[in-house]
Amino acid sequence: MAGQTVELTQANFERITQAPGVCVVDFWAEWCGPCRAFAPTFEAAAKQFPDITFGKLDTEAQEAVSGRMEIQSIPTLVAFKDGVEVRRASGAMSAAAFASWLGKLDSVDLSVEQQRAANRKLTEEGTPPPGVPPHAEWDDGDKEWCSGDTDDDGEKHGPWKYWRADGTLCNECSFVHGKPHGPFKRFHESGEVSQDGAFEQGELHGPRTWYASDQFTTERMHENGVSEKVRRTVMVYAHGRVTQVVHYDGAGERVVPSTGEPYPTRPANLPEKAEYREDQDQWALVSLNAAGERHGLCRFWDREGQLLWEAEFREGSRHGRYHSRAADEYADARVRFDEGALEDDFACGTWKLLDADGHAVITRDLGVAQDHEALDASEVFSNLPRSAEAWRGFAEQARADRRYREALVAMARASAVSLDVGPLKAWLEALTLPRSEASAREHAEGVVNSAGDERAALADALMRGAEAAAVFRGLAVLHDQQDRPRAALDFILAAMLLAPERPAYLFTRSLILANLGLGEQMQKDAEALAPFEPDSWKFLSAYGRVLFPRFEFWAGQAPAHCTFDEVPEGPTKALDAVQAVVRKYATRLQLLREEILSRFKPGAKVPWLPPDVSALLPDGPVELEQTEVEDADGDAVEVDETLSLKGMGLPALSRTVRGDWSALVWLLWACGEQSLRMPEALVPPADFGQAAGQATQRLWQCRNRRARGRLDPDLPTFDFEGVALQELHPNLAGIAEEQYAETQAMFFWLTDADHVSPWQANLRG
Which of 192, 316, 322, 468 counts the most CB atoms within 10 A of its CB? Predict the structure, then answer.
């Protein structure tokens, strides 16, 4: 129907796409973010182009069709004209680019397209198509035919030509002993020039120009946000390095690339070489080194020509004098500019906050610059606990040495241990630049979002006046992710002391407490969040139950159920083989239990500690092997029964325990046991087969929830730790997935004579 999209299936695909006229098909999937983002553009285009049929095909629901169409990535757009495929494009397009693409479909010459299709068929067969010299060779890397002369060493030398698989000329250039040298031209499929320029000894040198075409082309020009109004782009090179990029419209007027609007008039006070940066709405004059890095003095102005900032750079980093406009950035309303020195992007030495006349309002010593290497090695970020007195001593020595970043971080840890934030506040006021509240918050958010794992960047932000609470929270998250939860706990406590009114910090502390294995304290923080952030409370509560379960005899607590038509009747393994595997599970669980206990103080109560299963090991632990076996097809399969506990955090240990515990208790249940007792006979329960199938179907559903965000409606669902699977956060579904993967592996081993171990790498899907 005109103006609407059609849902395509295997049943109607041929009828819709082979009908007279133009049809465009969007191959997509629900889990694909770019597909969902492009969907409104596709729907809007259906209304804008009522003479075109618009169809959508779900590649997951219609795998046979997408496979036949050789869809390799999504979204992919395929255009048909009178039943013939004439165009294909991968990736989401902007509305303007899609409209331009659609607008060219009506003028497609079918006879030309059919000839090109025939030529591509010849290329697939290894035969040069018409127009390509018979002696041309196919370059599988560039997907082009090529022809030219070589020197005595077999290097390209002299003129060379290149053709696409459809036989159209795409490139003409010259080589000198293997290196491009001299003028070159590229061509659109229509024969129009798409690019021209020149190489000098293998490097682009001088102007390289792109030309747009109104005909269909695979040559790239309108990408990365460049407007369709841009008809010519000139990129100037100096021996391989880009020095300038200029865009023009069809009338030859210089334009802004993203909009195609006229290029702004350069303010009279700016140097002639200053270029307009539309992404920032600023003018810039940037000095670069041979590697294309900022080097030397770089200056930036606003659209009207007022200086925003200038800085000296050394090989890509700010190094030397820095000066910037700073109105409304500092607590003192008189401040209009700030200036100081940087070493490799880190502020240091004397900084001045200046008024409109250039007089210093405030002067601060920001100490010595401390780079990534220095701070990464500092004890102040260690995971070892210290007393408040010890941290204060460290802080005082660092301050005396003008290592102010370490001093502030150490004082934050002292405050966290003592719960006394007064000294930290006093040091922040004395040592850092006094930004306004809004500027401090904005600066902190920017650095926290961009710093990644760089402690030095976060510490430097403190000195520059970023809001300390947000920075310390950023440090807490960073150290928690790097398995330094004790340090992380100190940092989040410091943040909460500085900003006790922020309930969001409870969420961060709760996750850190989880990494410390403190499940009960974690749940208290979750409950405190409930009035402010109910969704976070629900997630944390579920996370706590998932991560710190009660390790009871889970198997058989509820009737097992699956929808398979055929299920195994019982174990195929002998009793002695089952007993051997029980001992291996017990050995692994004892090792995990001992490792967990080693992370706590002697005598500490760990409510979620897995039970002692040493009764299953009357002769002590058994050997865990790592080997390789052959499967039924003769292929090598890895078997790894060992545990690599070094570096595993408590959550990872808990997740491993879940999987092994589930597999063990279901194995015992499968033998007829109802408790942790070594089986003396194989007496499988009546619903043995249902339990085996249930493990597999639950694994599939967990994987669907984690990877696709949805469940298979044809498979039974279930609750996991009190939460319906469809409501379980995908991250938590991943933990459930690991548990059922281990249970499935155990059942696969138990019911298949060809499998030699539950720890075969091919039993988890």
Answer: 468
> What does each C-alpha distance from 257 to 93, 231, 233 come to in angstroms?
17, 10, 9
Contact (Cβ atoms closer than 8 angstroms) between residue 573 and residue 754? no
Phi-psi group of 214: left, alpha or beta (phi > 0 → left; psi -120 to 50 → alpha; rest → beta):
alpha
Contact 245, 238 (CB under 8 A): no
Token pair belonging to 187: 């061509």
Task: Write the DSSP string, 704-755.
Answer: HHHHHSS--TTS---EETTEEGGGS-HHHHHHHHHHHHHHHHHHHHHH-TT-
Report the DSSP pairing between strands 182-187 and 169-176: antiparallel
Residue 132: count of CB within 10 angstroms of its CB? 26
- The residues carrying an active-site annotation are 32, 35
Bridge partner residues of 321 (DSSP): 341
CA distance 694 to 567: 10
Residue 80's DSSP bridge partners are 23, 85
Give the pairing type, strands 156-163 and 179-180.
unpaired
Give the sign of the dihedral formed by CA 614, CA 619, CA 621, CA 622: negative
CA–CA distance, 725 with 758 (Å, rounded to integer):
26
Q: What count of residues does the chain have?
A: 765
pLDDT tier for residue 2 given thresholds of 50, 70 and 90: low
Cα separation, 334 vs 326, in Å, equals 10
* Complete DSSP assignment for 375-402: HHT-GGG-SS---HHHHHHHHHHHHHTT
Q: CA-CA distance, 321 to 312, in Å (whole number)?
A: 6
Find, among 642, 632, 638, the residue nearest to 587 by Cα.
642
* CA–CA dist 393, 382 (Å, integer): 16
Peptide bond preceding 75: is omega within 30 degrees of 0, i.e. cis?
A: yes
Which residues pair with residue 62 across a beta bridge? Answer: none
The predicted-structure confidence for 187-196, as pLDDT tens digits, reads as follows 999 999 999 9
Which token pair is 280? Answer: 């920032």
Query: Is residue 370 within 8 Å of residue 406, measured between CB atoms?
Result: yes
Tell me: the pLDDT tens digits for 504-553?
Answer: 999 999 999 999 999 999 999 999 999 999 999 999 999 999 999 999 99
In tens, the pLDDT along 250-288 reads 999 999 998 999 999 999 999 999 999 988 899 999 998
- The answer to whether the beta carbons of residues 667 and 747 sit under 8 Å apart is no
1: pLDDT strictly greater than 60: no
Cβ-contact 187, 193 below 8 angstroms: yes
CB atoms within 10 A of CB 630: 11
Among residues 632, 663, 666, 638, the alpha carbon closest in space to that of 755 is found at 632
From 328, 351, 348, 349, select the one nearest 338 (Cα to Cα): 351
Give 3-state DSSP helix, strand, coil % of the chain, rounded to 5.
35, 20, 40
SS3 category, 284: strand
Strand-pair partners of 144: 139
The tokens for 721 are: 């730790």
Whole-angstrom distance, CA of residue 569 vs CA of residue 684 = 8
| Chain centre distance of CA 288 | 30
Strands (E), 570-702: 626-630, 636-640
State the CB neighbour count (10 A cutoff) for residue 658.
22
Helix (H/G/I), strand (E/B), else coil: 45 = helix
**DSSP 8-state symbol, 411:** H
Please, what's the b/e burial string for 469-503 (b: 16 or more CB within 10 A of its CB; e: otherwise)?
Answer: bbbbbbbbbbbbeeebbbbbbbbbbbbbbbbeebb
